[in-house]
Write a structure and sequence with these properties.
single chain, 429 residues, mainly alpha, 21 helices, 0% strand, globular
């Protein structure tokens, strides 16, 4: 009977029940009907146990660091830096949007924060220059998925926690795929800019102007260097690195740039606490859901079914990418990783796929799902920021999604793309 937990969960999602409640009600109802009262207690106890983890503390700290930097005006400095580098190109502001997302990714690791912070600045600016609002919202949503790919990444922290992998290895493996997504989006913008005669944002910046923009962005851009350098150098753990990022954001905002005031802190803390609470509740519920997955023997049944389709790892990787892409349309990346990671990861590692490589395939695929209709979270955030309808943004984002899907398959079939940096630094075999 327990094998029906997943269909029931999907029914709950389709009728509009929030993901958290679907994750706990679906297995809870089936356990109640099955008379397994002891397992019901275990299920709901695991909601708390799933959140009670030192490594997961990195998530609220990184979110707080992103909020502090955004409130301290650091986002504007990153956009100004990106504009000095790329504003003179045809379709300059669209290129600036993507480059800003790549830079902002090194600060927050959150697609939602990226869409909200950059969208509120760049979507109105792009509209003033003649871009349609739906195009501006679409490129903002599409580029925001770079946030959880380039380190630091909340999604990769969750994967490492669930699967027992190295956070540092996952962070390093995400660098090149994140850059590849950004370059791919810029290539699409270049083609569209030539075809539709997109405007040039600014005149080409002089070396002096580029230097001034670089100096303004120096302190923010030092953040990922401190985080990754500290982790790789063994100075601090990923969780401690997140706390260091918060301290660094406060020091830079209050004492170096002097753009952050003490009176700003209550609102910043409240916003980051609310966002963190949502993420951690989902993690706790998904960990409880995972308990029922193991009780139902669903992993073994699914593994048998997958292996019955083909014994060729390349064919199976293609099929799993399709499955993950469909899952990403309906389910947020964090819960999807916690539910499917323990099921799919062991299957592919037993077939010779490197666990770090599979982690990146899964993380990038589900991250792209954040911008995929019909339930992509950043589509709704972009709609809220821009005032454009979700359906119109969803149609405009399709060319960018096509490039991101292409990158997923490149990562899948060319492991060197994601594995070279971890191997060179000794974090992977």
């Amino acid at each position: 009977m327990l094998v029906w937990f997943l269909p029931l969960f999907l029914v709950f999602l389709m009728i509009g029940l929030p993901v958290f409640f679907g994750l706990v009600f679906a297995p809870g109802l089936l356990l109640f009907l099955d008379g397994s009262t002891r397992d019901i207690v275990l299920l709901y106890r695991n909601v708390y146990n799933g959140m009670d983890s030192f490594p997961l503390m990195a998530i609220p700290f990184f979110m707080l660091a992103g909020e502090l930097m955004n409130r301290g005006g650091i986002t504007e400095r990153l956009v100004e830096f990106a504009q000095a580098l790329m504003g003179h190109l045809r379709g300059g502001l669209a290129h600036v949007n993507v480059l800003s997302s790549m830079l902002f990714a090194g600060l927050s690791g959150s697609a939602v924060a990226d869409t909200s912070a950059l969208g509120s600045m760049l979507i109105p600016a792009m509209e003033k220059q003649g871009y349609t609002r739906r195009f501006a919202a679409a490129i903002t949503a599409a580029s925001s998925v770079i946030g959880p790919i380039i380190p630091p990444s909340g999604i990769m922290i969750i994967y490492a926690y669930v699967m027992g992998e190295s956070v540092a290895a996952l962070f390093l493996a995400g660098i090149v795929p994140g850059i590849l997504v950004g370059v791919g989006l810029m290539a699409v913008i270049k083609v569209m800019a030539d075809k539709y005669d997109f405007p040039v944002s600014t005149q080409k910046a002089t070396w002096k102007e580029k230097g001034q923009a670089s100096l303004k962005a120096f302190w923010p851009l030092l953040t990922p260097v401190i985080i990754l350098g500290g982790i790789l150098g063994g100075v601090f753990t990923p969780t401690e690195a997140a706390a260091v990022a918060v301290a660094y954001a406060i020091i830079v905002g209050m004492f170096v740039l002097r753009t952050l005031r003490l009176s700003d802190l209550p609102e910043v803390l409240a916003r980051s606490a609310a966002t963190s609470a949502v993420v951690l509740l989902l993690v706790g519920a998904a960990m409880a859901f995972k308990t029922v997955v193991s009780l139902s023997h669903a992993p073994e049944l699914l593994a048998e079914w997958i292996l019955s389709l083909s014994q060729n790892p390349l064919v199976l990787l293609f099929l799993i990418n399709v499955l993950l892409f469909v899952v990403g349309m309906f389910l947020d990346a964090g819960p999807a990783i916690i539910i499917l990671g323990p099921i799919l990861g062991p299957i592919f590692t037993s077939m010779g796929v490197d666990p770090i490589h599979f982690a990146i395939i899964m993380s990038v695929n589900l991250t792209v799902g954040l911008a995929t209709p019909p339930m992509g979270l950043v589509l709704f955030v972009a709609s809220s920021v821009s005032g454009e309808k979700v359906e119109r943004i969803a149609r405009a984002i399709l060319p960018f999604l096509a490039v991101e899907v292409l990158v997923i398959f490149l990562i899948t079939y060319f492991p060197a793309i994601s594995m070279t940096i971890p191997r060179l630094t000794g974090f992977a075999n």
